Structures are given as structure tokens and as C-alpha cells.
Amino acid sequence: MTWSWRYQDADGRPVPPPADDETFTAKGDAESWLGETWRDLLAAGVAQVVLVEDDRVEYTMPLTPAEA
């Protein structure tokens, strides 16, 4: 199993992956990596990410705070 992130803008359109895009053997490793890099991704125009296991979507998560 391989875990990876897909990157999207605010409208759900694909954003090119960053130069340090990685794949992971564990879900927790992928989530830890995102926890360390989400600010850089947001600054690069990524508004939301999609966690993928092989070709199966696990979940989509915005990088911006939820509006009140």
C-alpha cells in the first residue's frame, strides 16, 4: 500500500505537486508530513488536499480554517 497526497485549489482543481512531494508506506507518516508542510502548501496555492491510498480516496481536507 502506498499513501500520497493530491493537491487542489479552492474549487477542487488539481494543483501541481510541490518539489518535495512524497509517497508514504503508512497513513500516519503521510499525515505527519502534511502537519509539517501544510503552511508551505497553502503559500504555494494549495487550498485542500486529498489523501489517497493507492487509487482509493481516504478523505479530502481543507488547509484553510473553517468559516464561522
What key attributes describe this structure?
4-stranded antiparallel β-sheet, alpha+beta, 68 residues
Description of the structure:
By secondary structure, the chain is an alpha+beta fold. It has one domain (3-62). The chain contains one helix and four strands. The chain has one helix at residues 27-43, and strands spanning 3-8, 23-24, 48-53, 56-62. The chain has a four-stranded antiparallel beta sheet, with helices on one face. Strand 3 and strand 4 (56-62) form a beta hairpin. The longest helix is centred in the middle third of the chain and has 17 residues, at 27-43. The N and C termini lie far apart (37 Å). Residues 1-23 are annotated as: Disordered.
Task: Give the helix/strand layout.
Layout: E1 3-8, E2 23-24, H1 27-43, E3 48-53, E4 56-62
Antiparallel strand pairs: 1-2, 1-3, 3-4
Give a brief rundown of this model.
Residues 1-23 are annotated as: Disordered. With 68 residues, the protein is α+β, with helices and mostly antiparallel strands.
Task: Give a count of the beta strands, DSSP E runs of length 2 or more.
Answer: 4
Quaternary state of this entry equals: single chain
Helicity, in percent? 25-40%
Give the SSE string: EEHEE
Described by the principal axes of the CA atoms, the overall outline is globular
* Terminal-residue CA separation: 37 Å
Region (Disordered): 1-23
